[in-house]
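Board notes (copied after class):
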Amino acid sequence: MVWVDRILAILFILGGVGHSFGSFFAFRNNELELLWALCASLFVFLLGALNLLRTRRPGDRALAWICFVGGLCWLAGSMRFASLMGRYLEPHALIFAILSLGLCAFSVRSLILARI
């Protein structure tokens, strides 16, 4: 199960790479929106890295909580993006939502196992 957790975290980081390239493509003429989009990419990189760290530190409850709350925040942001786009099945948001849910589930698993 640890490998699935790590793969989700790596896919999350790769999603951040795609988000960065897409941001440059979509907002190259609008520096303000580009800045905010790249800040979101940085959040994705950080959250992915924290989740990778969490897979190596199974007893770290504080890290598991940070990953869980961060995942919920990104899930909420992804769903809000989809609603603003007018379609909840928007592929970019849906992929991030699925990855976020998976990482949140593994964070909860880490919290439960750390208690034992």
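Comment from the instructor: Residues 2-115 form one domain. Residues 2-27 form the longest helix (26 residues).
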